[in-house]
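Sequence and structure are kept together here, with a separate record for every protein. An example record follows, reproduced without changes.
>
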Amino acid sequence: MTKFETANELISFVKEKDLKRGFYQKGKRIQWLVGFDMLGFMQVTTPAQVRKSRSGFNCSVTNWNVLLEENFPKLDWFLSAKYIGTELEK
């Protein structure tokens, strides 16, 4: 993966790769991709936090600055994971 110089480059890359909001699974691990902002941050949370949010409570998200090379593995995880939608089977 090449280094992104600007958040616009990152956003274009994300659109090209068709990364969208929702659950992604790789192995047994499931993460919710909240999205990307114009500063180059990727917001991620867990299924438990999504349930909490849907119940009307505040949820916590983790922000990763993917303009920094050391955070590329976090973005790469989503690129190699399977998109499983916006709902989890119970």
In short: The CA atoms of residues 12 and 18 lie 10 Å apart.
